[in-house]
Amino acid sequence: MAEKTAEQIYIIPLRGVRRASRRRRCDTAIKDIRTYLGKHMKSEDVRLDQTINEHVWERGAEKPPSKIRVRAMKFDDGQVQAELAEE
User: How far apart are CA 65 and CA 58, in angstroms?
Assistant: First the structure.
C-alpha cells in the first residue's frame, strides 16, 4: 500500500448545487465534492468513502446539505481518499 503524504480537513460549501434541478441536486453535490478535492489536493484520482455518500443523500435527492466536513488523505501515488470527518 502507498504511503500517506498529506492529510487535511476541508469544509466544502455545497450551496451551488441549488443551480441544478431538484431531482439532480445530490448528484451535483457529489460531483462538486470530487472537483473541489481534486483542485485543492492537486489530483485527478479522488475516491469518496461511502459515509460521504450516505450523508449527502440522507434527506433525499432534493435536499443535500449546504456544506460538508471532509477529511482528505493524499497518498504518494497521487490518489486522494476522502471520508466524512467527525464533528
Answer: 9
DSSP states of the chain as a string?
Answer: -PPEEEEEEEEEE-GGGGGS-GGGHHHHHHHHHHHHHHHHHT-S-EEE-HHHHHHHTTT-TT---SEEEEEEEEETTS-EEEEEPP-
Q: How far is CA 62 from CA 38, 44, 46, 59, in A?
A: 25, 28, 24, 8
pTM across the whole model: 0.92
> Using one digit for the tens of pLDDT, what is the confidence trace for 57-80?
999 999 999 999 999 999 999 999
**Inter-residue contact 20 to 28 (CB < 8 Å):** yes
What's the number of CA atoms in the CB half-sphere (13 Å) around residue 68? 29
Domains with residue ranges and CATH for the chain: 4-84 (3.10.440.10)
65: its cell numbers: 446539505
